[in-house]
UniProtKB/TrEMBL annotation:
Name of the protein in its database record: Uncharacterized protein
Organism: Eumeta variegata (Bagworm moth)
Amino acid sequence: MPEEGHPEIMKTNAIGRVYTVHPNNAECFYLRMLLHEIRGPTNFTDLRTIDGYIYHTYREACQRLGLLENDNHWELTLQEATLTASAEQIRKLFAIILTTCNPSNPKQLIQRQKYVLKNTSHWH
């Protein structure tokens, strides 16, 4: 059925086009991922609801669905760095990972690395 006043536009309940979003526009990027994954959402809360739990962000919902890669390789990289690198070098490496590698859960990554670094001689 044509949209009133616009005979070339059809009115439907389906999304016709989802535009590309750069990952730097984080929540929009994760929203887009969820729009491709979740069937039949009727509101934005539906997109953040996974197994009956409403996540605070679209990113958290994406993580719960397994749409994002985990940060194991970044954790291993930082752990290996503690064997030979100085504290300053480790901090620089961590900054590079955060700013250029887009880890899936940066808060969790830093929390785990705090524990690792506290238990090495580099944490001073």
